[in-house]
Every structure is written in structure tokens, then in C-alpha cells.
């Protein structure tokens, strides 16, 4: 470990101690991941209270570039809007969409965008690993191809997509809250360490 990396780690630990917003976010994400793993559900009390905490914290802290109601609201809206299409396609549950909106209240719009992108990467890797472990990679590829085709045709035709994957062709259920948690926490840590 170089001196710069060591300083970055110390800076990260200091930021976690000084700014309880990150600690709260990580705690909420951990609870959501465990709940999603056990029950395939992310409770509304968790996302609603987390959203409220994120908004209140942003309003209650001294003004800066990374606080304020509009800053937090921008993150909420972006997190919600970026995940909503996957809910409409039945590729994820409503709890996942609400969880990413909650994340937005802590990160603001710019960081929420990056956290969602990293979440998609983590989710894609998890889906591939899940399909490989269940010997269902061919079904996964076929399902993705069908979804992309329907989306393209719907976009060209200007109609609402109607994508329903037959349960017999489904690869299985993947608790996406885990991907959201790992993707978001990974982004926050990587940003603090200067990797992003």
C-alpha cells in the first residue's frame, strides 16, 4: 500500500466518523440487502424512513454544494426515474426502485447517477453468476434478447412495452437490493478513495 492509498483510507475513515450521513446510508443499505436476501422484499418503512432521513439531513446541515433540499430531491427523482423502466418491465420490484430513490436523498443527482451505473454493473455480474450457477445462461441471453427486441419495437412504434417473461423461461429470482447495496457502497468508497 502506497502512502497515497493509506492517506485515502484514513481520509475515508475520517469522513465516516465526521459525516454520519454515509454511516446511516450504509446501515440502511445493509438492512435492505439482508431483508431482500431473506424475504425478496425491501420494507416500505425502511425506504420511507431512509428517504425522510436523507432529506431532513440535507436541509438541516449547513449549506454547501452537497446539501439542501433541491440537491437531495434531485437525487431522489433521478434514482427513481433511472430504475422505473426496469420495474415497468418486471425486471425488478417496487422496493428496489424505492431503495434507489432513498439512496438519491443521501447522494444527490450526480452521485446517484454514478451509483446507479455501478449498481447495473454489479447486478449484471450477479445475474450472470446466478445464471451460470443454475445452468441457465442460454435462457438468460434469450430473455435479454426478447426484452431488447420488444423495447426497440415499442420505441419505434411509440407504444408502451408489454414484456412478460414466461415463468417457465425465467432464470429465477435475484434479490436486486443486494446489487443496489454493493453498487452504491462500492461507488461511495471508490469515490472517497479517489478511484472515481
Mean pLDDT across the residues is 84
Q: β content, as a range? A: under 5%
Rg (CA only): 18 Å
Largest sheet: none
Distance between the termini: 18 Å
What is the N-to-C order of secondary-structure elements (H for helix, E for strand)? Answer: HHHHHHH
Computed structural class: mainly alpha
Count of distinct strands: 0
Please explain how this structure is put together:
- The chain is 77% helix and 0% strand.
- The chain has a domain of 129 residues.
- It has 7 helices and no strands.
- The chain is an all-alpha fold.
Summarize the structure.
The protein is mainly α and 196 residues long. It has a domain at 3-113 and 175-192.
Topology:
Layout: H1 3-18, H2 20-39, H3 44-60, H4 69-88, H5 94-133, H6 137-157, H7 176-192
Helix pairs in contact: 1-2, 2-3, 2-7, 3-4, 3-5, 4-5, 5-6, 5-7
Defining key terms:
196 residues; mainly alpha; 7 helices; 77% helix; globular
